[in-house]
Design goal:
The complex is a heterodimer. Chain A is globular. In chain A, about 0% of the residues lie in helices and about 50% in strands. By secondary structure, chain A is mainly beta. In chain A, strands 2, 5, 6, 10, 11 and 12 form a six-stranded mixed sheet that branches. In chain A, strands 3-9-8-7 form a four-stranded antiparallel sheet, with no helix packed on it. Chain B is mostly beta strands. Helix content of chain B is about 0%, strand content about 55%. Chain B has no helices and eleven strands. In chain B, β7 and β8 form a beta hairpin. The termini of chain B are far apart. The relative contact order of chain B is 0.33. Classes of the chains: A mainly beta, B mainly beta.
Chain lengths: ~120, ~120
């Protein structure tokens, strides 16, 4: 079965705090891609990062960093020094490739609220 | 216009009405998708089109009828909907369907309320 679990429904932090959003996935595929998307109040999902299953290097992009650990099937997302503009719903998604084409399996999302 | 646009942004309809949602992508992509986003649930993939051909119908009731007249436009025709169909309907596009690395670009969605 293909599944993505985001156990944190909602997180509230104060500006400048660091925050980590958890993502745990399940798949039997050996080749797959993992994604993070951000959904601000305007509604559209904004692509943040893509990671393939053979690349376990952590990635940092500005205040964002991602920790991919195949051993624990996790792909966690950390925002350093959070800002009010980071307030949004964040989705982790899995593309298991067993269908041979793009078929994203999404988690239920984590709502992040950053207050001033 | 850039990216993926959707109209209308909000729609209220009765159960006996017929309406259509429109999606247009300005990215030169060949694949388009419809998703349903309900509260407290993961995004559900409804339909996938590649070069105007439907390649996936994810057990969606027939009261939802997609149409893809060309690779830039995607419609979702609605008729005799139920209140539980109220949700945010998101359209997305990607370069194509190959592999798994192409990210999908999403529109802002249509917030549908069925009375």
């Amino acid at each position: 079965a293909q599944k993505v679990t985001q156990a944190q429904t909602e997180i509230s932090v104060v500006e400048k705090e660091d925050v980590t959003l958890d993502c745990v996935y399940e798949t039997r595929d050996t080749t797959y891609y993992l994604f993070w998307y951000k959904q601000p109040p305007s509604g559209e999902l904004v692509f943040l990062i893509r990671r393939n299953s053979f690349d376990e290097q952590n990635e940092i992009s500005g205040r964002y960093s991602w920790n991919f650990q195949k051993s624990t099937s996790s792909f966690n997302f950390t925002i350093t020094a959070s800002q009010v503009v980071d307030s949004a719903v964040y989705f982790c998604a899995l593309n298991p490739l067993d269908t041979g084409f793009q078929k994203l399996v999404f988690g239920t999302g984590t709502r992040l609220l950053v207050s001033p | 216009e850039t990216g993926v646009t959707q109209t209308p942004r909000h729609l209220v309809m009765g159960m006996t009405n017929k309406k259509s949602l429109k999606c247009e992508q300005h990215l030169g992509h060949n694949a388009m998708y419809w998703y349903k986003q309900s509260a407290k649930k993961p995004l559900e993939l409804m339909f996938v089109y590649s070069l105007e051909e439907r390649v996936e119908n994810n057990s969606v009731p027939s009261r939802f009828s997609p149409e893809c007249p060309n690779s830039s436009h995607l419609f979702l025709h609605l008729h005799t909907l139920q209140p539980e169909d109220s949700a945010l309907y998101l359209c997305a596009s990607s370069q194509d369907l190959s592999g798994g690395s192409n990210e999908q670009f999403f529109g802002p969605g249509t917030r549908l309320t069925v009375l």
